[in-house]
Structures are given as C-alpha cells and as structure tokens.
Amino acid sequence: MPDNSVTSQGALGAKKHADSADNADILHAEHPPYLRHHFNSTEQQADAASFAMWLFLLTEVMFFGGLFTAYLIYRNWYYPAFVAGSHQLNVVWGATNTVVLIFSSFTMAMGVWCAETRRRKGLVLCLTLTFILGLCFLGIKTIEYREKIEMHHVPGFHYSLQSFLDPASNPEVFKEYHDKPLALDMARHTEIYFSLYFLMTGMHALHMIIGIGILGFMIFRARAGAYTAGHVTFVENFGLYWHFVDIVWIYLFALLYLISRHQ
Amino acid sequence: MSTNTIVSLPDQSTARIPKDNFFTRENGLLSWLLTGDHKRIAILYLISITFFFFIGGALAGLIRLELLTPQTDLMATDTYNKVFTMHGIIMIFFFLVPSVPATLGNFFIPMMIGAKDLALPKINLLSWYLYMAGGILAVYTMASGGVDTGWTFTTPLSTHYVNTNVLTTGLAVFIAGFSSILTGLNFIVTIHKMRAPGMTWFRMPLFIWAHYAASILMVLATPVVAIAIVLVALERTLGIGVFDPTKGGDPLLFQHLFWFYSHPAVYIMILPGMGVISEVISTFSRKRIFGYTAVAFSSVAIAVFGFFVWAHHMFIMGISNYAVLVFSLLTMLVAVPSAIKIFNWTFTLYKGSITFETPMLYAFGFLGLFTIGGMTGVFLGASGTDIHLTETYFIVAHFHFVMVGGMLMAFLSGIHFWWPKITGRMYPEKISQFAAVVTFIGFNLTFFPQFILGVLGMPRRYASYPPEFQVLNVFSTAGATILGVGYLLPVLYLIWSLKFGAIAGSNPWQATGLEWQTQSPPLTENFAVMPIMDHEAYDYEWLESQQAEKGTEATHAG
C-alpha cells in the first residue's frame, strides 16, 4: 500500500488503544457527556470557550468604540451643546439604574459561584434576581425615554430646540443648572448629543434585552439542573457578558450624565 | 527518477480512495447542512464562494463590455453605477474576505496544527449560515434594483441623496461582517488552544501565522464597520444627524470609521493568501522558508501596521496636512513587512529544487503581480503622487493587482495545491498549467493598461470616457475575456477530476505539513491518532528519514 503514513500511525494507534483498554474505567470517569469529541480534556474545552468569550467581548469593545469615538469628537467640537444636552438628563434615574445594574452583576457573580459549587436552588434564585433587575433597568430606561419624547428631545422626530434657546422654559432643569441660552447654531448641535445618547443607551439596552432573553432560557435550564453538574462554562461565559454590559453602562453613565454636572 | 516533477502518486492500478473519509462518513443533505465538521463547512463555503465569485465576475464582464466604447451604449449611467457597486460589494464582502480563510483556512488550520476540529464547530457552521444570509440578501438587493453608492457607502450620498437599496445592502454587509468575525474568533481560539503536543508557535506552518494575523484584524476591525453601517442606516431612516453637515455632523467621521475597517480588510484579504504562498513555495522548491521567524512576524507586523494607515484613503477628503504627512509615513511602513515576505520567498527559491506544477505557477504569478501591486501602493501612499492619481484608473489597477493578481492567484494556487488532499484525486496537470498561464496573461492584459489610463487621467466610476482612451480600454476588455476563460477552465477540470482524476495518495507533493501525513480525503476526525510534532515546520530531512524508515519497514515486511 502506498499510503505508508497511515500504516505507521496505525501501529502507534494500536499501542494507544491497548493503553486505553487498561484504563477504560478511569478514562470513562474523565470523559463526562458534555465533553465534545474534538477536545482532549474538559479543561481544554472550558479554556477554549472562555477564551472565545473574551475575544467576543473584545469585538464588542470595538463595536461600542466607534460610538465612543464619535462622542469624543463631537463633544470636543460642540462642548456647550453637550453640556446643555447632558443637563437635560435625569441623574437620579441614571444613578438608580447604575445601582440596579451593579447589584445585578453581584447576583450574577453569585449565580456563577452557585453553579461552580453545584447549588441548584441558589443558582435559580440568583438568575431570577438578575433577570428581574435587568427588567427593572429597562423599565427605568423606558421612563427616561418617555421623558425625552415628551420634551421633544428625540433627534429627527419632532426635535425641539426650545430647552436650549430658552432654558428657563424648563424650570426644573433651570433651577439646578442656570444654563445660559445657546446661540441657534450651537443649540442645533444638541441634536447630535441626543443622537449619541439614544444610540449609545439604545445599543446598550439592546444588549440588555438579548441578555435578559438568554437569562430566561438559562433559568429553565438551571431548574432542570443543567449547570450544576460540573459543566459551568455557559454560566461563566454569560456572567462575563453580563458584567461587560454592566461596565459599558458605567461608562455611559459617567460620559452622558455626570461629566457636565460641574463646570 | 526524472527531476522535473516532485509528484509521487501511488500505483494507479491498485490505489483506492479510502472507504472511510469525511465525505462518506455520513450521507444526505442534512448531514451537510447540520454538520460541525470543519472540512464539510469548508466545502460548503467553497461552493458558495465560487457561486458569488462568478456573479461578481459577470458584473465585471458587464463593466468591461460597457467600457469597450467611449460612449454609454450598453447601459444607462445609473445602471453602470449599480453594476460597479454590486461588483465591488460582492467581490469584497462575499468573495475576497472569506475566500482563503473560510475555505482553505477552515479545512487546513485544524489539520496543520494536529487538531480534530476548530474549537467552536457550531459557531463555524453559524458563520456559514450568516454568510449565506448576507449573500442571498445582497443578490436579492441586486435583483430588486441594486444600489449605486459605490462599495464604500460614501456619506452623505448614501444617507441623503441616493434612492436605492442602501439599507438592505448595508444589512447584507453587516451580516456578512458577523460571519467574518466568528471565523476569525474561531481561528484565534483554535490556534491558541487546540495545537497538538509538540506544536509550538514556531513550529507552526506560516499558513497558520498568516491566518492568525488576519484573524486579529477580523476580530478587531469588523465591529467598527458594523457600527458605521448601523449609523448610516439610522441616519438614512431617522435622520439622526451624526453624518449630516446641516446638523453639525461630519461625513468625514464616516470615512474614518469605514476605513478603520476597510483598510485592515485589505490585509484580511491578502494575508491568508500570503500564507498559501509560503506553503507552496516551500513545497515546490524543497526548502524550509528562508527566514521563517521573519516571515511569521511580518504577518503580525502587517496586521499591526494595518491599523494605523486608514487615513491614506482620505488624502483628498479634507483631513489636515499633518494627518496626511503622518499617515503617508505610516503607509510606507507597511511596505517593509510586505517586502520582507517577498524577499524571503525569493531567497527560499535560491538554490532550491524548483519544479513548476500548477500551484507553483500561480505562486510565481502572485510574486510578480503582488510586487507590482504593492509598489504602486507606495506611489499612492505618497501624498504628492496620490493627489494626482487618486480616483483614476491607477487606483483601480493598483488594488486589482493586489486583490486579483495577488489574492486570487494565491487562492487558485492553494486550491490546486490542496485539491488532492481535499478530494483524494489529482487535477489534470497539463490543462491546469495552461489555465494558470492564461490567467496570468489575461490578468496583465486587463489591468496593466489601466495603470497607463490612470496616469493619463481617466477617472474611475464613469460609464463613458474621452475617445483617446479607447485603445487601452479595448486591450483591457480583451484581457478580461481571456481572464474569464482562465477562471472558467479550473471550474470545469476540477469538477472533471472529482471522478476521473488520478488517485492522489496521502502525500502527492512530498510536503511536510501534518495535513499531508494523513489519508486523502481525511477522516472525519482528521488523524487516526493524535499526531505529535517532533520537528520544525518545512523539515524535508525529517520527511526523508520518515520515508526511509518506512522503506526499510516495507522491505522487512516483504
């Protein structure tokens, strides 16, 4: 047979096979059902999955990076418009949402711990809490968006410059910041600020919605005990995703709400 | 033994294709559509990519036909705009970006590093479905009226002025982008985590290094174009103002975001091709690649430098003179690692035992054409000449030399090189050598006149031109016809070879890569036992000693 390489490997394979027959029981114990055929060990499988997750988060950083770049440039160009725009946001709601998200990250981390230590009920509880907190966040975001719609601060959609040409028209904001009226040209640039506000928080909310959807799926699976039998990669990786989305919000909160509070 | 070929085939009267291989393991359409096997997914990709290539090629044919005469006679100018736009979009996003990585990379990265599969088989399959979804959407867009912004989606043209299918095309590119991200991500994880025992980073074939570098670009750059396209879509539908100068937005920001991806994308396209060339040149000159480490790191260097040159696409768009200066210098820097590769491949040939099988002919084509394409890139990187040459046919000729002359030659080289491994059968040598020569001649005839047209000042993207340019355009169109024949021939004889080709055996080229040390076509799990890498890449002495060993074994057995 011309195909010599196969024959030589065949000899080697026969030896390996003999080894595995000796250790069949041990090998069986080392090969749990969730180990996929192309990995040599569960460590390799878990390593690969978590490495892939970090890489995916890196692509997410680059995805949001485009928006952060746009924010950086336009904030430098249209500083007064960005300050005035930022003053229109409700810091109390923003701060509440930050607390909600940080707390949800805590419950998520506890969920990962529960999965690792094989506590099924604890895991279900933590995932459910995270799920509810995620919904709370979106609820509060909805209230904020509604305020913006009522104030005609949605770009391209009945956008109104009144709050910027005549800040006193909105007494609640005015008594806190005493903004001076902007010139018409600069006031128009507030639309860019609100475009970025809706884009960045909207993109973030989209990630939250996807996360909450996956959480719902995970709660069902966790009740069936899928993550508390030693294979916790999925929970761990979802945890990474959830924390990432949380961290993005921390930056958004700082850049959109807080940065222009004191001048 | 005659020395003009290295091909060593098994005795055809007794040789058989191994009964158990990845084609035969499972049957039925579903076993293909739901497969996790990287080799099957590579085949799915190969078929779909060829399909999109010929759609893009047909559009190119229409462009050249229109340019046969100075008047706009074949189609209306609006139609012409749509045709060149769709040609660019299909060729770039649906052929060049996935070409080598998704087919040859998918097939051979696990095999070369001694793994059973890519790390994430389901993600790999998902990437093919995303690719198909994007591709079908793009073709649907073309059928339902097309888009005429140019493949660059230039704002504010794309956001405010054209009335064509910008949204669906953008969505198609967005989806295809995710397919590319997933491929790159999968490769990086696989190369890090799935290497066989003994396969250290500096024992990996250069094909792997090239794909690693390209994957970094896919993962880091593609999300940026994704967000840029989202912004274009929102600007177009809702008028959010980020790219709208009337609201204080800046169209240049779009250019920055777009080229931050689309320049590295050029290296996403060419780096895997360079990986192919390294394998082919080493195999057909029977030598280790000269300066292995330098070639490996030059791939990474191209990837890194590739991130800092994007603004050279914007020299005449109103960026500051200082930015032009800096980006001009940085652009020159990319020439250094590219030249390292060219020089090292040439030194590999020096005193090698060179043979001229088809893959090597394509590789020689690559060396010459990529060098011309790269050098003219230096002309365009220098801002002085760029201002004269940009938006002329010089640019068109430049990137076709790199992409078609470079990448497509590398792709065809790789397809021929690994065809025996993929299918277990040889392609017919004589006719394929003929096709390689036809491609080379057709290519030069098509695109070399375009350099001259560009220097003379013929602008790109117009359906008509002054009559004095006609002679060169006729040359170009004639060349395109020959080129088309050069591309059709391989399709015909490769399909023919599936049934009638000679049985290849496991290692027809006497190559050293791990993929050649297993049967052809490979088993579903690639190797009968996990290979152990105990030698450097391209170690022909190791291969000879292996064969000598087997020879003595055979004698003893006999």
Describe the structure.
The complex is a heterodimer of chains A (263) and B (558). Chain A is an all-alpha fold and 263 residues long. Chain A has two domains: 1-30; 42-258, Cytochrome c oxidase, subunit III, four-helix bundle (Four Helix Bundle (Hemerythrin (Met), subunit A)). Chain A has eleven helices and no strands. Chain A has helices at residues 4-22, 24-30, 42-77, 79-87, 91-116, 120-150, 162-165, 171-177, 184-188, 190-223, 233-258. In chain A, helix 5 packs antiparallel against helix 11 and helix 10 (190-223) runs antiparallel to helix 11 (233-258). Chain A is elongated, with a radius of gyration of 26 Å. Chain A starts with a helix and ends in a 5-residue tail after the last helix. The longest helix of chain B has 35 residues, at 251-285. Chain B has a single domain (37-546), classed as Cytochrome c oxidase-like, subunit I domain (Cytochrome C Oxidase, Chain A). In chain B, helix 2 runs parallel beside helix 5 (121-143), helix 2 (38-66) runs antiparallel to helix 16 (470-500) and helix 7 packs antiparallel against helix 8 (206-238). Chain B has 17 helices and no strands. Chain B is an all-alpha fold and 558 residues long. At the A-B interface, helix 1, helix 3 and helix 10 of A face helix 7, helix 8, helix 9 and helix 17 of B.
Task: List the SSEs and their pairings.
The complex is a heterodimer of chains A (263) and B (558).
Chain A (H helix, E strand, L loop, with lengths): L3 H19 L1 H7 L11 H36 L1 H9 L3 H26 L3 H31 L11 H4 L5 H7 L6 H5 L1 H34 L9 H26 L5
Helix pairs in contact in A: 3-4, 3-10, 3-11, 4-10, 5-6, 5-11, 6-10, 10-11
Chain B lengths: L28 H5 L4 H29 L10 H20 L2 H14 L8 H23 L13 H5 L4 H28 L12 H33 L12 H35 L6 H15 L14 H29 L8 H24 L1 H7 L3 H31 L5 H28 L13 H31 L39 H18 L1
Helix pairs in contact in B: 2-3, 2-4, 2-5, 2-16, 3-5, 4-7, 4-9, 4-14, 5-7, 7-8, 8-9, 8-10, 9-10, 9-11, 9-12, 9-14, 10-11, 11-12, 12-14, 12-15, 14-15, 15-16
